[in-house]
Specification:
Elements: E1 2-4, E2 9-13, E3 16-19, H1 23-26, H2 31-50, H3 63-84, H4 93-103, H5 111-131, H6 157-169, H7 176-187, H8 191-196, E4 202-203, E5 208-211, E6 223-226, H9 229-242, H10 265-278, H11 291-304, H12 307-314, H13 319-322, H14 330-339
Helix pairs in contact: 3-5, 6-7, 7-9, 7-11, 11-12
Amino acid sequence: MTASNERCDIQIEPGRSIRIIPDSNAEQLNEQQRIDYEDHRWNFITWLRERGKNPEAREGYSDYSTYGTTYRTARFDRWVWGEEGRYSFPPKPEHADEYIDEVVAFRDVTTSTKGKTEESIIRYFNWLETRFSGCDWDRDQQFRSGGEDKPRDYLTRRERRLIRETVMSNDDDGWKITSLILTSLDTGLRPVEVRRAVVDWVDIDNKMLRIPKEDSSKNEDNWRVAITSRTATALTHWLRERRGREKYDGRDELWLTRESTPYTSKSLRRLIERLCRDAGIELGGRSMTFYSIRHSVGTYVTEERDLKAAKDQLRHQSARTTMKYDQVSAAKRREVLEKL
């Protein structure tokens, strides 16, 4: 492996090289950020080529696979910087979850292309985990680069009811999990929003969450998100109960784990998987994550109301993002036509 142009490129074969920092990334960085990012990229690309495929056997990926992986992960990094509003490294597992579930999954490309992107992000986090704490991404691959696609996994209406009944029948953790799940079933909270949620978001009198711009996932707007009377009641009981729990003293997080830490994508995934098991929900090969709740909110609000209602409830900036939930069945469309 040789470097050229002051470590700007890595020559992989005659006439072909990998740009360590693609121009689209470099133009967003100042000199100090560029030097920092270049060092990370150099180490990542080196790891891919020398041991990424099988670290124990020191077997790397082919130059072809390395080339594609480096550019797909650079695109992911640019998206993370846009989400955070600044240069940020390393990316977090919740960034990867949202990127795959909210961006890649609905990109107008083939399933194979989506699979290659997901594989690249998985490789990226395999490397990140070797160098940074908190970068272990627990994820089952959703898209296959060979073209076989798993269906979009979301809770059905029946499953939403079963989850609701299950969480309300178990009072081992008081009102905490009940309020978290009921709030998410209403609002489709992203994992990062569960982590950022604070007491001041809750407006019981008006039955809504008020998410300020600085705490919203996209950092672009203040949001007012409707909740049901049932959820408002659960939050009322939880806020009262929360005041008596010592681990919340001096802290404003709305929900903490039993270890007194904010929830992560991984801990929320374990929670929804446990609730599905307790509710007797047969997954049938589906990959159930916390986003499955969010996808169900988007699907059924769109079906019952319209895209505008779903857009506001899910806190989307663009209606184009919400259009992925416009999957009204042929039978329901036929019912509308027969009424015309």
